[in-house]
Amino acid sequence: MRARDNPFRSDRIEQLAFRFSGDTWETLLERFLRLGRRGAIVGPEGTGKTTLLEQTAARLTDLGYRTALLRLTADDARQSAARVRKHAARLGRSDVLLLDGADHMPRLSWLRLRQAASRIGGLLITSHRPGLLPTIIETAASLSVVRDIVAELLGGSCAAVESVLPELLARRGGNVRLVLRDLYDIYARL
Amino acid sequence: MNEMSLELEDGRTSFRPSEQVAGTVMWVSDEAPRRIRVELLWSTGGKGTVDEKVVDFLEIPSPPARGNAAFRLQLPDQPWTFSGKLVSVIWAVRAVAEPGEAQVYTEIIVSPTGREIDLTAPP
Lengths: 190, 123
What we know:
The complex is a heterodimer of chains A (190) and B (123).
Chain A: H1 10-14, H2 25-34, E1 38-42, H3 49-62, E2 66-71, H4 77-89, E3 95-100, H5 107-116, E4 122-127, E5 135-138, H6 143-153, H7 165-171, H8 176-188
Parallel strand pairs in A: 1-4, 1-5, 2-3, 3-4
Helix pairs in contact in A: 4-5
Chain B: E1 3-8, E2 14-15, E3 20-28, E4 35-46, E5 52-61, E6 66-74, E7 82-83, E8 87-98, E9 103-110, E10 117-118
Parallel strand pairs in B: 2-9, 7-10
Antiparallel strand pairs in B: 1-3, 3-6, 4-5, 4-8, 7-8, 8-9
């Protein structure tokens, strides 16, 4: 199958909406606002933290906040941390800083940022582990969420690959992003 | 923006590298947009991160609420339109009205043969 025809190609995956299990946008935003607009999206890799962060940014913009979304990766944590702190220093009371991968920040940099962020309108982070800021939601993969995503990508039904989904999800340790890449490979061979 | 459309000259959808892509963009809206931008671009689609590059563009500043404008944009030598199992390169002409989200997108083929290079096809 040509890459452009593959239903699991990355541009389609990037357009997927975050799937809540239990929570809703209203409960999530209410919790964030109640905590003084300080909070963390916590969960293992590939469970939708970044997707949720990006989509929360759009919701906050609709509510009238100015948002700045920055990413930290393990590869350039020190340089990125300096960039984030510099950026945060320019923000004000109507800004919300959204920081993807906050747990990659060196401890001292994180403490400095948290202090600097007390002067801005809000700070929402993603992290693999709890404890950096109050957790507003924990993301986790489930077979029903994977089935739902795959059905959407395949145009309504996941029947064509349903039998392999439990094994893929288990093999990938609950990382939905990697499961979708595996499915890309399966379709690429068709 | 209520309506926006693109027409390529002579109805062409296939071009050779280094050719020019000519056409007309048409728009109708309640309020005049701040600007309209017509872009010639390629993007990737597949397993990896999407790359996109605008290779030429035409800007129409302060257009009226309803109108049309001819454009002529220059194609480079490469990349050509192709598809493998991991990545496809897709060429297109895109017109965007600002502010707002109105846009129109028309795919084209850029290749010496006039057809997509399909690496997945059996030899």
